[in-house]
Amino acid sequence: MRVLQVTPSYIPATRYGGPIYSVHGLAKALVQAGHTVDVYTTSVDGPDDSDVPLGTRVDMDGVGVYYFASKFLRRFYYSSAMSSFMSRSIGNYDICHTHSVYLWPTWKASKLAHRAQVARVVSPRGMLVPKLVAAKSKLAKQAWLRTIETRNFQRATGIHFTSELEAVAAQRYLPNSLRKQVVIPNGVEFSNEVKELTTFAQRDLILFLGRINWKKNLDTLISAIEPLQDAELVIAGPAEQDELHRLTHLVNDLGLSHRVRFYGPADSSQKAKLFSQAKALVLCSVNENFGNVVIEALAHGCPVVVNESVGAAVLVKKYDAGLVVDANNLELTAAIARIQSDESSWQRYQINGLRLIQDKFLWKDIALQMSSFYRTLIDQ
Questions:
Q1: What are the pLDDT digits (tens) for 197-233?
Q2: Is 60 helix (H, G, I), strand (E, B) or coil?
Q3: What's the whole-number average pLDDT of the chain?
Q4: Which string of DSSP letters, residue by residue, matches 69-102?
Q5: What confidence score (pLDDT) does residue 289 get?
Q6: Is the pLDDT of residue 333 over 60?
Q7: For residue 297, pLDDT beyond 80
Q8: How distant, in Å, are the alpha carbons of 144, 210, 234 from that of 246?
Q9: Cα separation of 309 and 289, whole Å?
Q10: How far apart (Å, rounded) are the C-alpha atoms in residues 92 and 291?
């Protein structure tokens, strides 16, 4: 198959978090499964632009990535150059897979794919959760959903969710006519020959890894650390400056500056080192459609503490790969204390987490599931 992936931003703009990695992971795995995969995206990287060639194919792990400048309406990732290029080329593909909602590239791709009679899959990537719709720019999001996004869903041949949690939450925004839906999780890079892991005694950190923004509920995590005198929390990832400023004030007000450290963005080798030093990764977000960092942690032998609003929590609980708790101070404090002190349970979580990765999250298996879904849409 010839597959086109359309996404507002892409590697190296890693400030945008999990979807940047998961879209490329899927594209790379589809190439390895024998498909031809191209990505159309913008060069937007926050207020700046990625240092990439524009309007020409860039080979990235066998994936053809095409970057286009966004000179106006950057908040919506508008690109006249991408529009012209897509208009000429979209009919060359068997399927068009768009990632995100509320943004110009996915709206334009939907319109052009429909016109060219190309099968189209949309992945909302967690943007259709009622809590998140209501939390910021509520009126603007609701207007966009009514006037633009509903039409996009009606045009879609199918829709892809990364977890059952995301699928259930999104149903209120989907037209009844959209019948073809599938839940396929994100994958993770993982070697079947697991490297030697550091032991329980060698780990002394509690770790948060991800974008530092309001929906990550980091004030609750920081407050949960306060009663645990021997707990050191490392918060790693790219930060929204207003949120980082707010959290830094909270840390200082609680007298925790000696036990809570803001690490900054972490590359793959730095992530691996942090996972090897952590007793647990903690993710207690307001909502996560999936939570890529959860499976990254498990793949590195790092147990997790998550709340029910994290899409991956269902499998964490099923496989007993960590603790699933309510996202309040008392439960988080108790869970972190337990995982710091109960070595036998910690070892069980580690073993079960590695088994979960091998059973559910290898990219080669994810690519087979997705290509099978594509084929049903093309053939219908």
A1: 899 999 999 999 999 998 899 999 999 999 999 899 9
A2: strand
A3: 90
A4: ---S-GGGT--HHHHHHHHHHGGG-SEEEEE-SS
A5: 80
A6: yes
A7: yes
A8: 30, 17, 16
A9: 8
A10: 33
Q: C-alpha dihedral over 339, 340, 343, 346, to 10 degrees?
A: 30
Residue type, 224: A
Write the class of the CATH domain 200-360. alpha beta
Angle at 303 between CA 302 and CA 308, to 5 degrees: 135
Question: In the 8-state DSSP scheme, what is residue 189?
Answer: -
Angle of helix 104-116 versus helix 80-89 axis, rounded to 10: 20
Q: Where are the domains of the chain?
A: 2-187+362-379, 200-360
CATH of 2-187+362-379, one of 3.40.50.2000, 3.40.50.170, 3.60.21.10, 3.30.559.30: 3.40.50.2000
- Of 25, 31, 74, 15, the C-alpha closest to 371 is 31
Q: What is residue 123's three-state secondary structure?
A: strand
Q: Given this chain, do its domains 2-187+362-379 and 200-360 carry the same CATH topology?
A: yes
Burial class (CB in 10 A: 0-12, 13-18, 19+), 198: middle
Q: Which among 130, 227, 229, 234 has a CA at the least distance from the CA of 173?
A: 130
Q: Which two tokens stand for residue 264?
A: 């900054």
pLDDT digits (tens, 9 = 90+) for 158-191: 999 998 888 887 777 676 656 689 999 999 987 6
- For residues 371 and 30, is the Cβ–Cβ distance under 8 A? yes
| Range scoring the smallest mean pLDDT among 125-139, 236-250, 274-288 | 125-139
User: Of all helices (H) and strands (E), which one includes residue 360?
Assistant: helix 343-360
| Prediction pTM value | 0.84
**Which pLDDT value is given to residue 72?**
87
Exposure string over 173-190, b if 16+ CB within 10 A, otherwise e: bbeeebeeebebbbbbeb
- Give one DSSP letter per residue of 274-285, joined into a string: HHHHEEEEEE--
Beta strands 57-60; 63-68: pairing state: antiparallel
